[in-house]
Amino acid sequence: MSGQTVPADFSGHMLDLDEDEDLEVFSKNTSLADGSSMPNSPSSMVNQYRLEEDEEEQQDTNTKDLFITVDNPESQVTAIETFIMYRVLTKTTRSEFDSSEYEVHRRYQDFLWLRSRLEENHPTLIVHPLPEKFVMKGMVERFNEDFIETRRKALHRFLNKISEHPILSFSQHFNVFLTAQELTSHKKQGPGFLSRMGETVRSVANSVRGLKSRPEEFTFMQEYVEDFSSKICSVDKVTQRIIKEQREYLDELKQYGPVYAQWAGSEGDLGEPLKAVAGCVERCSKETEENNQHLSEVLAPALHEYILCAETLKLQEEVDGLSDRMEMANDALKGDWSHWKKSMRSDLRSAFISTAEKNVDYYEKCLAVWESFLLSQRVEPIEQRDGEDVS
Amino acid sequence: MAENGREELVITDAESEPLAGERSLNIVVVEQGCSLLRRMEICVAEAEKRSGKNAVNMQEMFTVYLIETRPMDAAAEGCNPAPDSLWRRYSEFELLRSYLIVTYPYIVIPPLPEKRAEFVWHKLTADNMDPDFVERRRVGLENFLMRVASHQVLSNDKILYHFLTDEHGWKEVVFETGFQAKADSRLRALSATFRVRNTNKRFMDMKQYSDELQSHTSQLLRARARVADRLYGVFKVHGNYGRVFSEWSAIEREMGDGLQSAGHHMDAYAASIDDILEEEEHYADQLKEYLFYAEALRAVCRKHELTQFELEVSSQDLISKKQQREELATGVVRTFSFKGMTNKLFGQEAPEQREARLKLIEELIAEGEDTVKEKTAECEEHVEKAWVDMQRFAEQKDKDLREALIHYAVMQISMCKKGIQVWSNAKECFLKM
């Protein structure tokens, strides 16, 4: 690569800075005002972002044109190692893709590769995080079913987040990830140049940090990210605690029901209602189990994802400490920022709604269980009973 | 809970409410015979703390309970005279019960509420002065009096009447009965259990059942307390959402309001568990009553063992005395006796002495036969009467415990309805996020 094609401006968000195709990409940009590869004026950047916001909204209201699923985790055994392969299915109508359907197989490492590529090439954009390599708490095996399923869901979300992003979804790396049967050849074109540059940039950034005064919005964003990170961690902690308490409650419930059944064994007429109560407790404990599972499968992962997001955002600040590109970096970040905030709000909102709905459902089911017991005892319905109480 | 012959329950503590279980048992059952309850309204209206000197002349705090009584016919005629009342402490109730146990050993005597708080879960303290405990004990004492006063046999007891009406003279009267002397010693009862031979099978089955009832109710009480403890934890932890959502809402623009109000609902959810579990304590009390009833039932079975054993002992005694007579008369020694030995060593005794001894033996045999008759009658009477009361008890138990289970289900339903409401409200708030 020649010096000319070295993208000095890392905020070149409109362009996919793929090392292989730098030249081609640059030459495509003759549509831009001054014909140079990079828009230089901040205002033009802002304009571009406005456009993107419109696009974003268009994407929301129009039908999606890129559908991705991650499923079918399968264990692969080689001489050296064992790992899980996930199937990635893509359906699309985009012209950037040669075909309308793709099926490829990817492992976690491949996802890591994709993300690091995206981050390098778009350092000012917010790239959704991946699930962690391994879980620190507890002895979770890599091949534990729940762990694999949790990871699969997170990988699925990751690809969908990328596909929803107005810029990232057009990344060449993304395309390759979704379409190439063999990823290894693409990977072999090492991280090399750009990531080395990336590291240099970071060290530059670190040195200029504090010397430059940052614009207000940027400080605001920083503060928000710090606060958000701590709040979301708190919510996550509370949620984990609830899951734990509910599990302990469930354990006691499982021992509670059988006590009624055992008692029924030494009773005559009383045996029937005792057995019935044992049955009710058992059914309620099943519902409790389901409710708790829902919490683990829906709310907890969503919160966790945004904890990772917040961590990613904190790192973002380092890059943005670039000296003379800061204004542009600002604007780049701002646009992606509102996209991200919208996304966060929508994701967490639906996770909370889903949790509330599940709880309502849980209580409704338990209610039905106990009402059927009353019915079996040929007791008058509750309304009438309440009427009797008024005296 | 026991049948309440009156419509309203005089409870002076404004905060407490009548139990749901009690309300549902407002049916007046017409008893055969003259039940005290049909003649008199009884309630344990209040509890008060007093201090006084105890047996070792030390200052102590104790609780007294106000018993109010009112003749039934007065209320029926429409005039509402002020009730007679007196104060009693727990130990006096215990004394009454001890008297009843000794005097009516064939009756399953209703139990008193527990002396000390047991089967406590997390929140409740095992403190006898705790107002909630005192209140529940007040209810338990009233229940005890109701059960006794509505019992066909027990309600006619004079001592019971004195207990209810004679504040200071009662103790003297009860001690005058000398019931304490008549009490069976533990040792005697235990020894009977081991050595008795021919017990009535029905009684032995009932004894077995009483063990099972005791074991099952205590297991259930413990399991329930553990579940209550855990449920408390679940609800309270949700309260943390309230705090955290509130903090989070401060940094959010669009999401703030929704989060904040959802947080308030989570606070309400966390707070709701206190009332829920307080009500469940009443259910626990209903179970506890039958835990203690199991002991009373077993006492009746043990009494049978004792009377049967005493009959066997006296029969055996009579047999051996008859044998002795036979030996004296025939001169054939079958059993070992010192007299026999001395005869061998020192020669036979004189005929006059033998005559005297024979006469004595005959007298003892006559006594022995009376004793056997007596013991047989005692045993049979006990079997007959006890069987009747055990049947009555069984029916009462089935009815009461079924009611308790229904009461439990009603409470669960109420809890579910609250849960549905809270989470529906929270959902509305989340929708606004």
UniProtKB/TrEMBL annotation, chain B:
<keyword id="KW-0653">Protein transport</keyword>
<dbReference type="InterPro" id="IPR034783">
    <property type="entry name" value="SNX4"/>
</dbReference>
<dbReference type="InterPro" id="IPR036871">
    <property type="entry name" value="PX_dom_sf"/>
</dbReference>
<dbReference type="InterPro" id="IPR034902">
    <property type="entry name" value="PX_SNX4"/>
</dbReference>
<dbReference type="GO" id="GO:0015031">
    <property type="term" value="P:protein transport"/>
</dbReference>
<dbReference type="Pfam" id="PF00787">
    <property type="entry name" value="PX"/>
</dbReference>
<dbReference type="InterPro" id="IPR037430">
    <property type="entry name" value="SNX4_BAR"/>
</dbReference>
<keyword id="KW-0813">Transport</keyword>
<dbReference type="GO" id="GO:0005886">
    <property type="term" value="C:plasma membrane"/>
</dbReference>
<dbReference type="InterPro" id="IPR027267">
    <property type="entry name" value="AH/BAR_dom_sf"/>
</dbReference>
<dbReference type="GO" id="GO:0031201">
    <property type="term" value="C:SNARE complex"/>
</dbReference>
<dbReference type="GO" id="GO:0032266">
    <property type="term" value="F:phosphatidylinositol-3-phosphate binding"/>
</dbReference>
<dbReference type="InterPro" id="IPR001683">
    <property type="entry name" value="PX_dom"/>
</dbReference>
<protein>
    <recommendedName>
        <fullName>PX domain-containing protein</fullName>
    </recommendedName>
</protein>
<feature type="domain" description="PX">
    <location>
        <begin position="43"/>
        <end position="170"/>
    </location>
</feature>
<dbReference type="GO" id="GO:0031901">
    <property type="term" value="C:early endosome membrane"/>
</dbReference>
<comment type="similarity">
    <text>Belongs to the sorting nexin family.</text>
</comment>
<dbReference type="GO" id="GO:2000786">
    <property type="term" value="P:positive regulation of autophagosome assembly"/>
</dbReference>
